[in-house]
């Protein structure tokens, strides 16, 4: 639920519970508006955890695949709840087909979102081909800048190291990226100090 929707829902609930008489009924529309706000929320297309070791891809229509491996069970469970799906499938390896627009091999994945091709590069050997043909690229391994146009890179290992976990939505206007650094703000226990952050930026 969006923050604004939660606030409206809470205020409407307080109004309906605290006041007496018919006036309290005016809180019910606010409660309804808060609940309806959930319909305006769309799940991210890709989620990457804070070290890049776990990636979830939303294929739409209740289908979600996650990168292989037995680790990160807590994150896997939380992401499955966020996507509101009963089960999460492993990454496919049979190529891109109409029913599942994603194909993976040990070097990375290619997926189609909104008619655009997204490349997930897990090995440097896949960077040249993916960076040349994909519309947007997510680099989950260190790749020399000369191998990939910066304009195509939505997220790189540097971004993950600096900003933590990433949630990415691919729109007609380009990738929309949300990071845990943006969510938490500046805290004394944050991984990167303000002085160091200014240097990195």
Question: What are the segments in which pLDDT stays under 50 over at least 5 consecutive residues?
Answer: 193-201
Oligomer: single chain
What strand line-up does the widest sheet have?
A: 4-3-2-1-10-11
- Rg (CA only): 20 Å
- As a percent range, the share of helical residues equals 25-40%
| Category by helix and strand content | alpha/beta
Largest sheet: 6 strands, mixed
The overall strand count is 11
Helix-strand pattern: HHEEEHEEEEHEEHEEHH
How many helices does DSSP assign?
A: 7
Q: Shape from CA axes?
A: elongated
> How much beta, percentage-wise?
15-25%
Question: What is the total domain count?
Answer: 2
Q: How much is the average pLDDT? A: 82
Query: Termini, distance in Å?
Result: 31 Å
Summarize the structure in words.
This protein has 201 residues and is an alpha/beta fold. It has two domains: 3-40; 46-184, no CATH class. The protein contains seven helices and eleven strands. The chain has helices at 3-18, 27-36, 73-83, 127-133, 157-163, 180-184, 194-200; strands spanning 46-48, 55-60, 63-66, 89-90, 102-105, 108-113, 116-121, 136-139, 153-155, 166-171, 174-179. A six-stranded mixed sheet has the order 4-3-2-1-10-11. It has a five-stranded mixed sheet with strand order 5-6-7-8-9, with helices on one face. It is elongated, with a radius of gyration of 20 Å. The protein starts with a helix and ends with a helix. The relative contact order is 0.10. Residues 193-201 have low confidence and may be disordered.
